[in-house]
Amino acid sequence: MFFNTLAKNSVLLNCQPISHCDAAENWQVGFQDPATPIMEGIINLHHDLMFFIVIVSVFVSWMLARALWHFDKVQNTSASSLSHGTLIEVIWTVTPAIILLVIAVPSFSLLYAMDEIISPAITIKTLGHQWYWSYEYSDYTNNSDEAIAFDSYMIPEEDLEFGQLRLLEVDNRLVVPVNTHIRVIVSAADVLHSWAVPSLGIKCDAIPGRLNQTSMFVKREGLYYGQCSEICGINHGFMPILVEAVSLPNYITWIYNKLDD
Ligand code: CUA
């Protein structure tokens, strides 16, 4: 029932019987479901790192507990004269270095994958303002040569409809097609903001006077909720981001309607 309400609120009425809803949950500890290959990569890297973190923490804790137990003044009344051992020092220097090298391999491949922008089909410009986002689709122009541009404000609590998420719903969503390489250009008009959508694996600083670039390839239709992630003033918590991923035909219909406005 909740999802149906969301689907009805979708710009393309009744086209989607089910709309996925990717937002944070109360007391959430883990990740949201990934919707882009990049977010899948981030989650995989996290799991890879957890393997080493668990082994290292258990080993270090065990050594610490052992040292505290065996070398207190009751158990060990006469101190050892041992001051160093070359072999053990080589081992405890080289082993962490090797672990870091092993971690660096998947880490760098993910880093470069995130940086890579594969000949995008669409470029969207997003500008942070105090306190709302504005979006521009400069690829398309109407008869008067105007590009699509609109502001996206949070819907205040008293205006929420049933099924809409508090502090996360916006009046004008960023609509994107699925399975398309999209370039996102991020900047700000006044102070620092950050355009962040967890399920898409995006967190890009919006800096006045500077263009930052990121990309997305959304694999499934749905609503992806995010929030400004750079303290930008009193209403920092009230400038959410809502990306609506739709099928390509629906996206084209949406573009046509926007150009007609
Ligand atoms: Cu904009 Cu925080």
UniProtKB/TrEMBL annotation:
It is found in: Mitochondrion inner membrane; Mitochondrion membrane. Residues 23-118 form the Cytochrome oxidase subunit II transmembrane region profile domain. The lineage of its organism: Eukaryota, Rhodophyta, Florideophyceae, Nemaliophycidae, Palmariales. Component of the cytochrome c oxidase, the last enzyme in the mitochondrial electron transport chain which drives oxidative phosphorylation. The respiratory chain contains 3 multisubunit complexes succinate dehydrogenase (complex II, CII), ubiquinol-cytochrome c oxidoreductase (cytochrome b-c1 complex, complex III, CIII) and cytochrome c oxidase (complex IV, CIV), that cooperate to transfer electrons derived from NADH and succinate to molecular oxygen, creating an electrochemical gradient over the inner membrane that drives transmembrane transport and the ATP synthase. Belongs to the cytochrome c oxidase subunit 2 family. One of its GO terms (cellular component) is catalytic complex. GO terms for biological process: ATP synthesis coupled electron transport. NCBIfam families: CoxB. InterPro entries: CcO_II, CcO_II-like_C, CcO_II_C, Copper_CuA, Cupredoxin, Cyt_c_oxidase_su2, Cyt_c_oxidase_su2_TM_dom, Cyt_c_oxidase_su2_TM_sf. The keyword Membrane applies. It catalyses: 4 Fe(II)-[cytochrome c] + O2 + 8 H(+)(in) = 4 Fe(III)-[cytochrome c] + 2 H2O + 4 H(+)(out). This is Cytochrome c oxidase subunit 2. The keyword Mitochondrion applies. Keywords: Copper, Electron transport, Membrane, Metal-binding, Mitochondrion, Mitochondrion inner membrane, Respiratory chain, Translocase, Transmembrane, Transmembrane helix, Transport. It comes from the Eukaryota. The gene is cox2. Residues 119-257 form the Cytochrome oxidase subunit II copper A binding domain. The chain crosses the membrane at residues 49-69, 90-114. It is a multi-pass membrane protein. GO terms for molecular function: copper ion binding; cytochrome-c oxidase activity; oxidoreductase activity. Pfam families: COX2, COX2_TM. It comes from Palmaria palmata (Dulse).
